[in-house]
Every structure is written in C-alpha cells, then in structure tokens.
Amino acid sequence: MNQVEIIEVGPRDGFQSVKAYIPLDIKLSIIDELINSGIKHLQITSFVSPKAIPQMQDAQELAAYCLQKYPNAHFMALVPNLRGAKTAWETGIRQISYVVSLSERHHVANINRTRAESFADLLNIQMQYPELEICLDLATAFGCPFEGRKHEQDVLGFIKPYVESGIRTINLCDTIGIANPAQVRKTIRAIQQVYPGLELQIHIHDTRNMGMVNTLAAIECGVTKVQSTLGGLGGCPFAPGASGNLATEDLVFMLSEMGYELGIDLPKLIEAARYQTKVIPDAIYSGHLHKISQHI
Amino acid sequence: MNQVEIIEVGPRDGFQSVKAYIPLDIKLSIIDELINSGIKHLQITSFVSPKAIPQMQDAQELAAYCLQKYPNAHFMALVPNLRGAKTAWETGIRQISYVVSLSERHHVANINRTRAESFADLLNIQMQYPELEICLDLATAFGCPFEGRKHEQDVLGFIKPYVESGIRTINLCDTIGIANPAQVRKTIRAIQQVYPGLELQIHIHDTRNMGMVNTLAAIECGVTKVQSTLGGLGGCPFAPGASGNLATEDLVFMLSEMGYELGIDLPKLIEAARYQTKVIPDAIYSGHLHKISQHI
What we know:
Two copies of one chain form a homodimer.
Chain A: E1 5-8, H1 10-14, H2 24-36, E2 41-46, H3 59-69, E3 74-79, H4 82-91, E4 95-101, H5 104-111, H6 115-128, E5 133-139, E6 143-144, E7 148-149, H7 152-164, E8 169-174, H8 181-194, E9 199-204, H9 211-220, E10 225-228, H10 248-257, H11 266-279
Parallel strand pairs in A: 1-2, 1-10, 2-3, 3-4, 4-5, 5-8, 8-9, 9-10
Antiparallel strand pairs in A: 6-7
Helix pairs in contact in A: 2-3, 2-11, 7-8, 8-9, 10-11
C-alpha cells in the first residue's frame, strides 16, 4: 500500500508550455537526468500536428531515441487522434494517453473536434491497434475555464462509454488547477464505487497552490500513479502569474518523508531540476525544492 | 466542525523577515486591509529588543493603534520574556504568544537564553500577569536546523511542565518547513490523547511546498486555529530561495472551496495581498493566488 509510481510528464506537458523550440539534444539530456534519478515512467512527447504545437515537431525522433536507449523504462506519449496513434505505434510506442475533455467547449478548443468525434476515433484506434495500451487523459475533470465546476456525476456519465469500449485506465486532470481535496476524494470514491476495476491516475496543475494537497488526497484514496513535472515546469511564459504542474521534486520530498517507496534519488532529481532551469531559463517553474535545495 | 479560524501572523512573522524598516503607516494600512477582508485574529507585532529586531521597534505604537481602532478584533503579540510581557500588558495587549523552541540549540540562537531560563520566566509572567492569555509558540516542533528531526515523544516530554503550569493553548510551529502530513497527524494525535483539553494551533512555513498539505492535515485532525501570512510573506530576502509562511489567501481559497466557514472575503484578501506586494516590493512571497487572481 505504501508504493506510488510517479509519472513524469514534463517532457510533454512542461516542454509544450515553452514557446521557443527546445533543441532535441537538450530535451534528451533532461530525460537522461530524469531516468538517472530513478524515474521509470515518463510521458515523453505528443504526436500532434507540428503546426498546432511546434514544440512537439521532433516527437518521432525523440521517442525513437528514448525507446532504443532505455528499453526498461515505461514511455508513453500523448495522442489526440487516429493519425497520432498511427505515428506513435509506428515509432514503437506501446502506451498512449488519449486526450479528451470532460467539457465540450474545452475539448473543441483543445482538439479542434467534438467529443463525439474523438470517441469515434478512439474506437478506430482500439480496432486498428489492439495491442496499444490506452490511458484516457480526462482534461478539465474538475472544472473548465468555459463551463465552470464539474462534478463526480459529470465524470461518471462521461466515462461510461469509454469504460465499455475497453478503457482500463483513466487519468483525472485538473487542467486549470481548480480542484480541492474534498472534490478529489468525492470524485475518486464515486468512480471507485461504480468501476472498482478501473485504474485511476491524477494530474494536478499547481495554479492555486493545490498540487500537493490534491495529489496527496488522491493517493490516500488509493490512487497509486500520479503525474507531475520536473521543476513544476508548465503554464505559459506569456501569461503573467500562470503556474505549472505540481513539481516532481516537491512530490518526491513529501512522499519520501511520509515513508512511501518511490525508488527515486531526491538529490539527483533536484540536480536534474537545476540543470533544467539552466538549459531552459525562459520558463515558468512552480517547484520549491530546486530553488531551496541548500536547506535539505 | 466545519469552522476554522485563520490567525494572520504576517504583521509579525512576515514583516520581521523584511530587512528594511517598513514605515508604521504602511504596516497599519496592511492591517487595515486584512481586517477589511474579514480577518479577525492577528498576531500584529512582537515585543522584543529593537536592537535584536529593528523592524519591531514600533511595537507599542502599532499595538496601541490597532487596539483603539478595532476593539472587536483579536490581537496578539509575540513575547520572548518577562520584559516583553510587561510592555505588551501595559500597551493593552491581553493575548501573547510566548515563544520557545523544542530544540535547545535553536532556542539559544533565537532567544539568547536557555529553555530552562525561558520556563522560569514564564512562571514569572503567569504570576505577575494572571489575566494575560498565553499561547505557547513551540518553534522547531517538527525539526530543527541544528538538531534534526523531532518526534511526538519529544513534544510530549517538553510540553508537560508547561501544561502543568497552566498553559491551555500550544501552537506547533514548523519553523523550517520540514514536517510532513504523516508526522503532523502523529504529533497532533499523540498530544490529543495525552492532553484532550489542550487547544492546538499550527504554523507551517512553506519552505518545501508543504504549507497547504500540512495545514490541512492538522485541520482534519481537529485543529481549528491555523496561522498563515498574507502573500506568504516571510523567509529572508538575503537567503536565495528561502521561502515564507503558508499564504493566507491560498489557505482561504482551499478551505472555502472545501466548504469551511471562514467569514473572509477572498477577493478583498487578494486585493490586500496585491497591495502589500506594491508597498513592500523587496520581500519574499510564497503565495500563488495574489499572483494569479485573474484566474479565479
């Protein structure tokens, strides 16, 4: 019960928040540092249109490098459609995060199609790539910038056809950092009650300083895979005050202190966060530890 | 059960972290803003040697102003010795935080006397000012920069004579931001078991991003009075990466979202935090909300 897997999503969610293209060798060197610190699960890129997200233009090369160099690590990539799934599969990726939004308006803004179209495409992916492991990345699971607060009943209603289609893992994403621990617990318990076999993950943005408290709330409800980004990289450097994800090193500190077994070397992870700050200086970091590691 | 009192300690713990003297009228205007937002409990200053902490040189004038202007607010002041208690009493203060450290080495560094000397002085204060309400401010309650980790048995042993002397309220201070939720729960439950009648408070520094999660852990163990500072003001502007207290506005956001009744107007509180940032620009703020209130 005292084991938690940390899924580092900085190379996808963090890097994509940086406007200037990060050279491939810099990206790879950060992934090297992460793996060297003991991180075993990484979302490394997304297979999306390079026109929509130019930062991810090197997805295939990056994924091929990682798969070849680290055969024992668990790499996943974000995919918004059948075309992305095809490229991911052909590159050798066997785990994808299929991104949909609980909110229709956010979904259309994010993926440029309706939720119904995305669901139809998922069925195509499942048919054409039956060996692909698919995690449903549920964006705006707790609230949406356009549609406001979301409730556990919204989640339950929305995921039903996905679970029936064969989805076994759902990642609850607090895209805008609006969730609170009471809501996180309520949502998770409601899903666990209806779908006891479903694996849940959590992905909390730290916009309102709720990253640690909501992630711990999820863990203490039984969630054993949690997402975060090195240094809390995320947000948008052009939106004043925008914040990133929960910082991996903060999370590792808390959980290690509480006795969770993570297999991650905190000083090495902090070194990785410091290195990242050096090679990507023009970015938003919401993490505390890499700034204050002299106190540890 | 869903009521929590927030004790704003920024005018003491926050202001004292700022090296340059903050003019009295600026301090008072920030206190005005805090009270205007609905804050009812404030630690407004400390009665200490102006040589040791020049920032607190205006303690008497500040306290007199506050007591006269806001007869219904609850003001307390930090006091390290009999002399401080005397001045506080003569100024009209009826609630003091008597500061001691669980760690002897930190105590000597902080108060310039031994813990035994401080205990003897407390007995004098209790005798000379029997109507003074005294909260024991227990610094380094979870860990010390010199002596390392502290455990619940250390706390229990240390507070015994204090409780026997008549102390009814103890504020557990995580001075260096090293506690974790498991430790917070363990410590609080141990104290509650031995001293069920004791009122506990919590005061968490956000050094390692643990402010929210540790404060919530305490609240969910039954602690109903929690300390924080506007904007997360605190730390030391001359220690790179040092962090302040838990930010009051972040705490208010979380608890309000969870349904706690606080009687605090969050937009007004955020305005207060923004105002403070303007009038004390050269300081460390660890709060998120006042930076990103455009997202609320």
